[in-house]
User: Which sequence fits this backbone?
């Protein structure tokens, strides 16, 4: 019996239907499922992120009387400019901005330099002790430092209330994050380049600075952005280390400002301060979000 196109197509169609059932339905059902999934994700993001952001913006744009009870309604009179000017004039925002930069920039530089060097050594060496060192290095991701021990150590070193003390605390806190990302990235780099450089008589320092470090730029950019965002918005350890000193940061100063008599229940001024404090990091994240995603996917997966 000669096979016709119709008889040949029937088994193929049966096979496709079987495959579709194993994959979770027909192509039309799978498309509808993906659309539903995307809609649910967008709605959740709108609720979790959009609603608080909208509350901050509209409250910062209201007058003191209208913002007495924060809600999602639009302001009847736009007062965002006046609120921002009042916060800048009376809230010592520029002083706190300088303190945040004085703490954030050195801490991020130390994290990238020390973390990338340690990650290179941990990624290229093998052995039981090397695995132990790597585990200890990334332990700060899941084991936050003890507050009392940290404060007592900083105080015993004479760094209580100073920017160098806060830089040292942040360097220790976020070193595990840098080591985690950079070590995974280094393990994916070809070792043949380093071996060829060693044969040419390159010293370890030259090998790291001239060969390895340029190849680490994507993951270093990601680590820099993530640690900058974390340090910029951190207030818990800042309160214990810098509290009572001359140096202050934007989050710590926000706490002081919100506790002042003229700011109590003045939600429009408090949220205006939040807008000013968040604006630099929002710009950084919006500009560098692609680098964050690419660095995370390349550095966290071996």
Assistant:
């Amino acid at each position: 019996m000669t096979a016709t196109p119709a008889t040949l197509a029937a088994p193929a169609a049966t096979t496709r239907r079987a495959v579709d059932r194993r994959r979770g339905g027909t192509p039309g059902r799978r498309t509808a499922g993906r659309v539903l999934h995307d809609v649910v994700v967008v709605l959740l993001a709108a609720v979790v992120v959009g609603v608080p952001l909208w509350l901050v913006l509209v409250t910062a744009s209201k007058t003191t009387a209208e913002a007495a009870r924060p809600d999602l309604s639009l302001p009847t009179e736009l007062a965002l400019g006046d609120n921002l000017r009042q916060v800048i004039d009376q809230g010592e925002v520029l002083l706190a901005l300088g303190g945040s930069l004085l703490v954030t920039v050195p801490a991020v530089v130390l994290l990238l330099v020390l973390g990338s060097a340690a990650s290179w050594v941990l990624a290229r060496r093998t052995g039981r002790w090397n695995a132990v060192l790597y585990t200890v290095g990334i332990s700060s991701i899941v084991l936050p430092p003890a507050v009392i021990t940290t404060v007592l150590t900083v105080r015993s070193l004479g760094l209580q209330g100073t920017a160098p003390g806060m830089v040292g605390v942040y360097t220790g806190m976020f070193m595990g994050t840098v080591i985690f990302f950079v070590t995974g990235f280094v393990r994916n780099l070809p070792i043949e380049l380093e071996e060829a450089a060693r044969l040419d008589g390159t010293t370890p320092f030259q090998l790291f600075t001239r060969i390895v470090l340029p190849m680490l730029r994507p993951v270093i950019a990601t680590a820099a952005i993530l640690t900058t965002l974390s340090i910029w918005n951190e207030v818990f350890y800042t309160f214990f280390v810098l509290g009572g000193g001359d140096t202050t940061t934007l989050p710590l100063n926000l706490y002081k400002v919100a506790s002042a008599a003229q700011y109590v229940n003045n939600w429009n001024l408090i949220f205006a301060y939040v807008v000013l404090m968040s604006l630099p990091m929002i710009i950084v994240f919006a500009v560098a979000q692609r680098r964050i995603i690419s660095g995370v996917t390349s550095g966290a997966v071996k």
Notes: The longest helix spans residues 27-60. Residues 5-9 have pLDDT under 50 and may be disordered.
